[in-house]
């Protein structure tokens, strides 16, 4: 191959790499792909970092305490009046605040494969059914830090959510830890807001 041709191909490869790095491309479960704007990719990545860092900080005893001290004994919101729940909630709230998240919560799968809400900084109902999700499975079954493909709006605020595996002291994934972070840029990109009529149905 002539030197000039090799040089041209090298420059072309570098240019293509730079172009591909300029945006974040996601792909949904149906094979659709779309480019996530940089400002939204930043919110998504912040959510993933918050979930990952909190899960790493809490792995071991936090999961053990939910597993052994709460789950076998409480099936309703009376758990929220216990000292153990209050202590775990305080720990989770500290993680939320230190990592700049808006909300953090822990999901545990039940026998049917549906995920149930346990500790939650928003104090939503204990064992509320959060259904199933391929993103939950990425975190729980595959051990990955995974983010929702789209953001969402609540009231006048916008958020992005990510999940990380939460390990117990035996090194097993017992639950997943979720983190919601602010995603104000969604106001300018309603196609990435799953609560909007303009949502691109990317999930």
Task: Describe what this molecule looks like in 3D.
- By secondary structure, the chain is α+β, with helices and mostly antiparallel strands.
- It contains five helices and eight strands; from the N terminus they run H-E-E-H-H-H-E-E-H-E-E-E-E.
- It has helices at residues 3-21, 38-58, 61-70, 83-98, 134-140; strands at residues 24-27, 33-36, 103-109, 115-120, 146-147, 152-154, 157-167, 173-182.
- The strands form two sheets. Strands 3, 4, 5, 6, 7 and 8 form a six-stranded antiparallel β-sheet that branches.
- Strand 6 and strand 7 form a beta hairpin.
- Mean pLDDT is 87; it is low at 1-27 and 29-33.
Count of helical regions: 5
How many runs of DSSP E, i.e. beta strands?
8
Largest sheet at a glance? 6 strands, antiparallel
Cα distance spanning the termini: 45 Å
Query: What is the percent of helical residues?
Result: 25-40%
The SS-based structural class is: alpha+beta
Radius of gyration: 20 Å
Secondary-structure element series: HEEHHHEEHEEEE
Shape: globular
Q: If you average the pLDDT, what whole number results?
A: 87
Low-confidence stretches: 1-27, 29-33
Beta-strand content: 15-25%
